[in-house]
Amino acid sequence: MAVTDNAITAQQGEPPTGRADEVAPTRVVTPSGTGTPFTRILGIATIIAMALLVLFGLFLSPADVVQGDAVRILYIHVGTVWIAYLAFGVTALSSAAFLWKRTTSLTWDRIAGASAEVGVLFMALTLFAGSVWGRIAWGKYWVWDARLTTTAFLFITYIGYLAVRGLGGSHQQRGRRSAVVALLAVLEIPLVHFSVKLWRGLHQDSSVADTTNVKLHDLMLFSLFLALIAFTLLYAWLVMHRQRVLAMQDAIEDKGLDYALQQRRDEGDL
Amino acid sequence: MFRIARVIAAKDLRIELRSRVVTNQVLPFAAIVMVMFAFALNTDAVVEKVAPGLVWLATLFSLLILVQRAFAIETADGATDAMRAAGIDPAGIFLGKAVALAAQLAVLEIVLLAAAFVLYRAHFRVSGLVLLVTTFLAATTGLALVGTLYGGLAAGTRGRETLLPLLLLPVVAPVLIGATRATEAALGTSGAVVADGWPWLGLLAIFVAVFGVGGTLAFGPLIEE
Amino acid sequence: MAHLGFILAAYIATFVGSAALAAYYLNRGRKLSAQLPPEDKPWI
Fold it and tell me: Do chains C and A touch, with touching meaning 3 or more CB–CB pairs less than 8 Å apart?
């Protein structure tokens, strides 16, 4: 009886309730992973939003008068670039927050890191979708106009930021170092944007200028907003999970050798 | 802060004078880079046209080596840690090392410019002299400031030095763009007029201001170990 | 649809890329979670 009760309670994630001499005292079964009810709802909302985006983006919305079906890529492209900018903004703010109340809230540091990682992925996707769009609209995968060049620059800068995060040292050192690098990057971006704009302003490629400002109406505008919502949900979901993974990584590092030994002992007991 | 900067700058320059690493290793490296550009680009007309850009590219590549060197002399004996432990103002260390780096960069750039006149047939014109000199001063200062800043970050043990190019080159992109365009205007390459160059100089000045202030503030946290 | 191949490539790359990252995060989460007691996981 007691054993069955224990089996049931063990499955439900609580410590066994049987007598001490009947069960192994150390093992507790906990629900695995980084998910919580909130993230599950968020995840479902994201999937629904993405499905709607595909429906509207690929089928229900009309082709553009000027650029035809190529506009469908723009929904994705604008969605991913929006997340990337949002992500890097969050990284900068979290970095500032970490440095500001520099007590011990490594959560800010982890949010900064998680956000930057997601941002880098979406920057890569932006560049990919953008170059596919460029291939259709301009016949070229890449042009050296101000926006593209600055975007490529941003991408590399944050790869550098992620590399700095991997330099090692204590969590506080990592946090402080990466926070400073993130804030320097934020200072740097307008400089680069301005200099590239000035530079490319001398070589105004008219074919590029005409087709980059697209006027969207009705269903197309709706598809675009749908994309923004869908990708924002995705961003939030990814960052929450990543932040929790980073928290666990830090906790495991903190516990270090003692913990590994304890685990080996636990396994021996069972 | 300035007294410390002066002491540190003097120390760095004295070390360089005695060891002659810049003159014996970095300058020849820069020269060979200039030669290799010519090999790669092949046509004389092309090389003449892009000469200002090549000068600044060679400067940037040499900057990487100069920065590594500037911090290698510290980490070899744990000098930076000792200075921090002694409570020396990191802003002073930052400015001192930046000044020393700027001096070495300046020597390098003069040599590279001379090489451009000789190898790439760049033309000098008196009307562009003020612009040219100011550009070099501004760009050198900017490069020295960011170089010292990120050099401090990338310095140390365990394979951090390889991070320096990845971090530094994107950051100096505005200097590359601005200095090249301003130099083109000063020298009259590709038909540029001197007046075209001044907006770029403005950009360089802003760069110097941003990283002068930003670097002074950021250097301390970055080198803390 | 014109340029269908390109358009699909962009859509698929985006969704596959996102899904891959999501799967990676979830997997890491599961593996690390098995090694830690609940007090280290304040979100649960």
Answer: yes
